[in-house]
Structures are given as structure tokens and as C-alpha cells.
Amino acid sequence: MSSPFQPPSGPAEHVERVLCVLAHPDDVDFGSAGTVATWTAAGTEVTYLIVTDGDAGGFDDTPRQQMGPLRQAEQRAAAAAVGVTDVRFLGYPDGRLELTLDLRRDISRVIRQVRPQRVLTSSPERFWDRIGASHPDHMTVGESTLRAVYPDARNPFAFPELLAGEGLEAWTVAEVWLGASPRTDHAVDVTDVLDRKLAALRCHVSQVSHMENLDEFLTGWMRQTAERLGLPAGRLAEAFHVVHTA
């Protein structure tokens, strides 16, 4: 048995439940849909928690009041493409996320509801080599989620209304996977589920329909990731920084 002062050297081989917490519809699909597809294929139950409806996104003249519901529908379709049926939205304003106690409480609530052994979210650190990954909303959600994982969700005295008012017992998450991190240390080979990842991304019509070379861009990006992290030639990978939090 590992000492509490010596965390495991790598992620768990299999977990029963995963919670993915991301800022916008399509965030999980660009960075992690292949990984999610491997998890659901192995029998893991995956829940998506999307903090905004993505109402500030899009590249056409879709009325703003229609964009949020449209992007929710796109995300549900994308989730289904990789075997996810539980998709939840918090409805915070797109592009205006701040690190607040309300957001920490709302993420903690879902952690206690889902009781995941693993949480996937965005890195709270700015990625200077790929600045597009460090949207302020991404960083805010990453930091808020980490604070919800530790200490909020596991502390029965944090946000006491969750326990006393809603009956949600404290829950300890064992590991957190951070996407778009400058400290990447773990690769997932997604070569064999590429078609499912691409199918998920194509569901986000409002966001990707203008991208003529989407497939080539993604496969090239994932091929470089695989090579950088030591996978065999020709393989495709998604990459994460795995943090042990139990």
C-alpha cells in the first residue's frame, strides 16, 4: 500500500466514475474527446459539467439569444458520440467567469452528486507556448475546480448548505487530469478512437463549420503530442498533467 506521503507514480488504470468540468461547449471535445471515448469503452461512467452555455461563441450571424441553447444541443450530441449521456450546464456567462465562492460551491455540489474518483478539467496555469489554450475562462474553471476538489468537496464543513440542505455527503476525488498544461506528463493513445473524436467535434457546427482543415489540423497536433511523449511513430495522443489529490 502506498504511503500517504508517496502518491502513485501514475494514474489509476480504471475508475468507475469521471467528472469532466470545462468552461465552454466543445472544450472537452477539442482536448479530451478521444480520452473520454476510451474511458466509456472500458465501462467508466462519464459526466460532463459545462460551466457556461458558450453564448459568446460562434462565427456567423446567429442571434445571441439562440446561441446558448444551440451550443447546449451541440454539446449533448457530441457527448453522445463518445458514449456520454449525463451532460450538465451551470449557465454562467461566457467570457466573464471569475473565481468566486459561488462557482466553487456549484462545482463542489456536482462533485458530491457524481462522486467521481477522477476529475478532468483545464489547467489553471497559463501556457505561454500555446496562448490560445489559456482562455481566461479555461484558467478560471481549472482553478475553481481544483479548489472544489481540495478542500471544498471533501470537507463536510465547507458550504454546509450542501450537506444540511441538500443531503450531499463530502467526497474525496483521488486524481485530477489537467488539459492544456505546461506540465504535461501523461499521454493517452487515442489512435483507435479518432473517428469518434472527430464525430464529436463535427457536432459543434456553430464553432467548426468554417474550419476547412479540421481533421488534418487535429491529427497533426495529436501526432506531434504522441511523438513528444514517446509513443510509437504514427500514433495519436491527447496529453494531460495528472495530479493525485486523495
From TrEMBL:
Species name: Blastococcus saxobsidens (strain DD2)
Protein's UniProt name: Uncharacterized LmbE-like protein
Record keywords: Zinc
Domain of life of the organism encoding this protein: Bacteria
Annotated GO MF terms: hydrolase activity, acting on carbon-nitrogen (but not peptide) bonds, in linear amides
Biological process terms in GO annotation: glycoside metabolic process
Pfam family for this entry, one: PIG-L
Keyword Zinc: yes
InterPro entries: GlcNAc_PI_deacetylase-related, LmbE-like_dom_sf
The keyword Zinc belongs to this UniProt entry's keyword annotation: yes
SUPFAM superfamilies: LmbE-like
